[in-house]
Amino acid sequence: MIYLSKEELRDRIYACWIGKNIGGTLGTPYEGTRELLDIEGFASAAGEPLPNDDLDLQLVWLRAVNDLGPDAINSKVLGEYWTSFINPNWNEYGVCKANMRQGILPPMSGEYNNTLWRNSNGAWIRTEVWACLYPACPEKAIRLSYEDASVDHGFGEGTYAAIFVAAVESAAFVVKDFNQLLDIGLSKIPDDCRVARAINLVRKAHAEGIDWKTCREMIVKDSEDLGWFQAPANVAYVVLGLLYGECDFKKSMILAINCGDDTDCTGATLGSILGIKDGMAGIPKDWMAYIGEGIKSICLTNGHGAYPQDCTTLTDCILSLLPVTLRETNNQIMMKKYMPHRYNGKGVQLAEKTDLSEMNVKDFYGNEFALSLAARKHYSYTIEGIYASVLVEFDEKPQIAPGGTLTGMITVRNNNFFPEQKQYSLRYLCPEGWQVEGARSTYCSYQYLDREAKYNYNQVPFTIHAGEQVAAVNNIILEVTSPGRPNPILVPIQVMG
C-alpha cells in the first residue's frame, strides 16, 4: 500500500495545473514555429494566462467523471462528451467528430480516414486529469488515457504518446528520479513505436554529451517523414528540455519551447510534469505572479453549465473525486485475501502523512497493456455488456462496394464479475440484400489456472457480403444473447460505402 498525504497531494495537483498554465502561456505565441527560437520569458501581457485547448478538454473529461463515475468512462462515453461540449473542428478533433457524426464508434473514430493526424499532439497534451485522478497508479492512468486518446488518434503515435506521458505524470507523484520516470513511461508503450524511438534518441544524445541544439536537429531529422505538429518529435522536445535543463523549471521550459513546433503543448506538458514532481516549491513565484491562477477557455461549448474558472477550484474538484477513484485500489488490498487470482494487492490510500515505505518502483513498470494494444486490429472497437464484452475487429478498412465482401473477427469475453461458463448465440440483422456468414453460437469457459482466469473468451470469424444496394453508411446489428440472461448485447457494425 502507498499512503499519500492529502495536503501533499493538494500541493502537487495545484502545481500541476499552475505549471500547465505557465507553460501553455509561455509557448502559445510561438506555436507552429519551425526554426530554432531564443526566448527568455513571456511574450503575452501580464495579468492572466492565455487560453489553451490542452487544459480545456480536460475540464470536459473531469465533468464526465463527476457525472458518471470513473468506472463508466470509456472511449464511447468520452466521444459523446466530445460531440456535446467541445467546439473546434481542427485537425484530429475535426476528423473524430466527423466520423462520430457518421456513427463510427471510438476508437475507430480516431483511425478511419485519419492518416494525417493520428500521430499528432492532441491527446498527450490532455493527460494530467487522468494522472491527478490516479496519482501513483500509472496502470489506471494509462488505461483512461488510452480511452481518451483513441477517440481522435485511434492506434496512432498520438495514442502511444498519451500513454507514455500519463504514466510519467502518475508515477511522478511518488518517483522523483527522472530517468526512472522515463523508464516507467517507456515500459507502457511498444519498443518499436516512433514515440519510443524519439525519446531514446534524446536520452542517448544527452548521455553522450551532445549539445541540445544538435540533439534538436537530430529529432527534426528523425521525424522528417511524419512532418510538423506530430507527437514523436514534440514529446521528445519535452524530454530534451527536462534532461538538458536538469529539471529546473525555467531552464527546462525555455529549452523545450526554443525547439519550436507545437510550443504551447511542449511547454504546458513540461510544466505539469515538473509541477507534479516538485510541487509548488518548484514553481517560479515571479512566473506564477505574472499570469495568476485563472483558467481561460477556448474550446468549450457555452450554455452547458459552469467549469472551474481557476486552478484552485480545479484542484478542489479533483481532490473531491479521489476517494472514489482510489476506491478500487483500496478494494484490491481487501479482496486479495479472498480472490488472489483477480487482485494483485497494490493500492493507494489517502492519509494524514505520506508513507512510501511499502512502495517498490519496479511495480510501476510493465508492458502488458502495450502488448494488448499491439495485438489489436486497428479497425476495431469494443461494446461492453453487463455479463460480457464484444470486440469487433475488421481485417481491413471497413468499406465495401456493391457485391463486395469484408472479413473480420468477433471476440466474446466473459465479464470477470460473472465467473461462469456461458453459451452465446449470435444473430446478425442486415440491410436488405446483405448477409453475414459466420458461426451463430460460441462457448466461453471460465477456469482458473495458475491463479489467473483462462479460456474466458472465444473468437468467431465473420464475412460480410454486401447486396447490390450500398449506401454511404450501412448498419448491421449483431445481437448476442446468453440463455438465462435477460439482457441482450446489441453490437452496431457499421460499414462505409
N-to-C series of helices and strands: EHHHHHHHHHHHHHHHHEHEEEEEEEEEEE
Q: What structural class is derived from the secondary structure elements?
A: alpha+beta
Going across the biggest sheet, name each strand in turn: 3-4-5-11-7
Helix count equals 17
Radius of gyration: 23 Å
* Termini separation: 53 Å
State which percent range the strand residues make up: 15-25%
Mean pLDDT, rounded to whole units?
93
The main pleated sheet reads as: 5 strands, antiparallel
Shape designation: globular
How many extended strands?
13
Percent range for helical residues? 40-55%
Low-confidence runs (pLDDT<50, min 5 residues)? 338-345
Report on this model:
It is a single chain. This protein is α+β, with helices and mostly antiparallel strands and 497 residues long. The protein has helices at residues 6-27, 53-68, 75-85, 91-101, 128-133, 138-153, 157-171, 178-187, 194-207, 212-222, 231-244, 249-258, 263-278, 285-291, 311-325, 327-336, 368-374; strands at residues 2-5, 348-351, 380-384, 388-394, 405-414, 422-429, 435-438, 441-444, 447-449, 452-454, 457-465, 473-481, 489-496. Helix 11 (231-244) packs antiparallel against helix 12 (249-258). The termini are far apart.
